[in-house]
């Protein structure tokens, strides 16, 4: 009996300690104080990001942020779901990996309350060669990989249509679905896969339409056949944003987006990601 009482007492103490630690961490985040690596007078920010290029861009921004008293911690995510869930739950101060249509769709479908505080760059979605390395030689019934999430699949279908592989119902634009295909002269077979899986699935597909960040991470940029242009409708719609909680208006977050939109970061992006970030036509 004593053992049971002691065990319960210790468990309760542990729970209280964890709760207190969590509350202190949340308070520090709200007040812009504390946090790993942050000293007195410095503001910690924890930002979730895809490994490439988002986390790399944030690494380039670190010294610029430090000059303004912000200590940046980067948490890498390899999918498109967890970084939004972590932000909604207060585990992150911001995230950087998605475009506005994806963010809007995620909020609607998941009941989250996230907003963009600004755009940083546009990553072209591209058609990459797997078994086929020339679109002119794409065979009848070819298997074509596309992202399975709503917004990126619509974007992939639009790119395939722009390159004459399919025809979409008039007016559907960037809200297209597979049901909107009205002409499919080569009878291509769409293979819907999670966006992150497409690069490693490329050898098993004839071609695939892949997001720029996943093409970089997967090391398949040399297989690029066609891509969206810098002046395309997609470029105006799918610029990548920094997302935060809908009521979070801290000055440190404004500093974060200011730095990411600075000439220094624009120059870094231009020098390092020309394969998937198209220049203006």
Protein model, in words:
The chain has about 280 residues and is α/β, with parallel strands linked by helices. The chain is built from 10 helices and 12 strands. Helix 2 packs across helix 7 and helix 2 crosses helix 9. The longest helix has 30 residues. The N and C termini lie far apart (about 80 Å). The N terminus is likely disordered.
What does the largest sheet look like? Answer: 5 strands, mixed
**Derived structural class:** alpha/beta
Global shape: elongated
- Assess the beta-strand content as a share of residues: 15-25%
Helix content: 40-55%
Task: Count up the helices.
Answer: 10
Extract low-pLDDT stretches. Answer: 1-35
Going across the biggest sheet, name each strand in turn.
2-1-3-12-4
Describe the SSE topology.
Blueprint: H1 2-31, E1 43-49, H2 51-66, E2 70-76, H3 82-88, E3 94-99, H4 100-110, E4 114-121, E5 126-129, E6 143-147, H5 150-162, E7 167-168, E8 181-183, E9 189-193, H6 198-201, E10 207-210, H7 212-218, E11 224-227, H8 233-237, E12 240-245, H9 251-260, H10 263-272
Parallel strand pairs: 1-2, 1-3, 6-9, 6-10
Antiparallel strand pairs: 3-12, 4-12, 5-10, 5-11, 7-8
Helix pairs in contact: 2-7, 2-9
TL;DR of this structure?
40% of the residues lie in helices and 22% in strands.
Brief descriptors of the model:
281 residues, alpha/beta, five-stranded mixed sheet, 12 strands, elongated
